[in-house]
Design the sequence.
């Protein structure tokens, strides 16, 4: 149980720090999508794939916003949702970084193909409205406000104190080997480097950015869910390993597991997919099942689309389910 708790803390800590970095980068680049989209359709697919492979759901949220204002096609939206793995991407990079990178490369390629086919074959008549200016989060955050950093630290808010404390604890725990002690050297170095960057961010960004984005969005909304879903998934898998002949069962029912993974992927929420991430990490599910699940599921990136169009929400989900099941079947047939 202690080992499971340590692994959960390592994964959650890595996810927390990476979310801080991604949140900051997302704010720093806001308002640039429209300039990139002023051109050929292929730019929308490239942007969609790029936003999708970014860990977390921020890229998905951005693409839904663009789609709801008819700045991108339905195919571009499908591209993003195929490419994204939501918050689970952070967990995969923590558990098996090399294979997670390969997975994202494959997802990006499948996403580009899926987006193009969606516009050409399925929804050829889906035209965009006239492009118009969209105020896409034009807020800018100066990460190193000269002359203000010491003043911010002297009058430190509770949120900044807690975030500095958490990132410092993570940095010390990784550096001392309390968590990630059994990982390869380069993985520990990466965790230490990322933790140091996260500490720099929470110590220097303005109070508004820290409270609004890092504390409210990352620390309070995402991190608790990641921790409990990860812990729950690991406990369930461990119990199944200890009390069931799970290896033989899954080896004989891979097709059923593939279908279940795709069906679970239809849930518009981060968390359920972690079951299959953990199964793959333990060698209980093949890569094709993880790939199919990643294609279908999109974290909670699709939830904003429900407010815009329930019909489009169902369309995208069904298209992704079809692609995921097809690619998964091909993977099983090829033996991976």
Sequence:
């Amino acid at each position: 149980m202690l080992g499971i708790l340590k692994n959960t803390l390592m994964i959650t800590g890595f996810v927390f720090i990476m979310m801080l970095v991604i949140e900051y980068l997302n704010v720093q680049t806001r308002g640039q999508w429209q300039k990139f989209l002023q051109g050929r359709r292929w730019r929308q697919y490239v942007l969609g794939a790029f936003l999708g492979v970014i860990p977390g759901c921020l890229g998905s949220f951005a693409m839904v916003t663009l789609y709801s204002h008819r700045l991108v096609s339905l195919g571009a939206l499908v591209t993003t949702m195929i490419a994204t793995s939501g918050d689970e991407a952070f967990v995969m990079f923590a558990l098996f970084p090399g294979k997670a990178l390969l997975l994202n490369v494959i997802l990006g390629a499948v996403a580009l193909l899926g987006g193009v086919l969606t516009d050409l074959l399925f929804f050829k008549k889906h035209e965009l409205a006239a492009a118009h200016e969209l105020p896409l989060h034009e807020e800018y955050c100066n990460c190193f406000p000269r002359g203000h950093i010491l003043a911010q630290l002297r009058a430190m808010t509770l949120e900044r104190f807690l975030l500095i404390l958490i990132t410092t604890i993570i940095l010390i725990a990784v550096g001392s080997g309390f968590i990630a002690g059994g990982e390869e050297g380069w993985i520990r170095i990466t965790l230490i480097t990322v933790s140091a960057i996260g500490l720099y961010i929470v110590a220097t960004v303005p109070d508004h950015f820290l409270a609004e984005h890092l504390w409210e969005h990352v620390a309070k909304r995402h991190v608790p869910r990641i921790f409990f879903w990860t812990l729950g998934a690991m406990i369930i898998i461990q119990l199944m390993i200890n009390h069931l002949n799970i290896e033989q069962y899954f080896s004989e029912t891979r097709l059923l597991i593939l279908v279940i993974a795709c069906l679970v992927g239809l849930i518009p929420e981060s968390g359920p997919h972690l079951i299959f991430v953990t199964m793959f990490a333990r060698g209980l599910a093949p890569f094709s099942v993880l790939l199919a699940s990643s294609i279908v599921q999109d974290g909670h990136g699709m939830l904003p689309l429900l407010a815009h169009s329930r019909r489009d929400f169902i369309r995208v989900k069904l298209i992704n389910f079809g692609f995921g099941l097809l690619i998964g079947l091909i993977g099983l047939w090829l033996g991976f």
